[in-house]
Amino acid sequence: MPELNIPLSYNKTKSTVKNIGLHYEKIDACPNDCMLFRNDHKDDEFCHTCGASRYIKNPEVDHDVQPSKKSHQVSAKTLRHFPLIPRLKVQTRFNRRARNNDECDPSDAETESLFPQKRCPLGARKTDPFILDKKSLSQAHAYLLGNCDEIQEYIREHEQEVNNHPRRSKWSKAKDHCQNFSQWFETCALQEDVPDLIKKLSRGPNFVTKRYSRYLINGYRFHIRQRDARRKTQNSGVTVVASTTSFASSKDKNSIAANLTYYGRIVEYLWSYLCLF
Q1: pTM
Q2: What is the pLDDT of residue 244?
Q3: Does residue 99 sit in helix, strand or coil?
Q4: What is the residue range of 17's domain?
Q5: Distances in whole angstroms, Cα of residue 110 to Cα of each of 106, 218, 222, 271, 272
Q6: Would you say residue 276 lies in a domain?
């Protein structure tokens, strides 16, 4: 028989019931059911309708004979009120959120996302913030720009500018576009007529990031490799299909644009925000 986590005393049971919102409130009432002694009438001792006493009259005690006995007022009638709203907030299998619900609460969202996918990071690390190195920051910025619809016009403009050099090979042009687009885009964003969103995107993500151990996206739950080390079910493997231009060598003049599939395992979840300054 499995062990049941049952409170050992009545007081602990009452405390547990109160913490989950299933407690009740005691409210004194008129013996003739005329009124409740609550709100503005919580200190009254007689009913406003029939004049009945709120408390049971105790027999008079001779304090000279029994000096230590204290009189205690007992309510003539008590109503036990069970609040409805706390009971509706109790999570059950009928109203609790799904385990892989990737919709974050609006209050938890620190900034608006540029990507339409539903996502929700879980298991924040309680350590110092993670600092991205220069290479990782450059890769994150390139991914951000390459997958943002607002930047596609600038990408085509830079490709056209790079292709205006007829003596250069296609491989050299593609390499130039890949390595220098971020810097070129940042220069273009310095103009006064550029929207604020474009300026923020040109600065790239913040080098100070947060680390998480789990991630919910599009109804699927992923873990980092360290979390899956001692688990039978592995959720750290991912597959990414990327559209890219491939060359057989640096002298290849016939590039091939195709979708390449990459396989890997998630080592770390890093969450960063755009630089605002």
Answers
A1: 0.53
A2: 79
A3: coil
A4: 1-57+71-96
A5: 9, 20, 22, 11, 11
A6: no
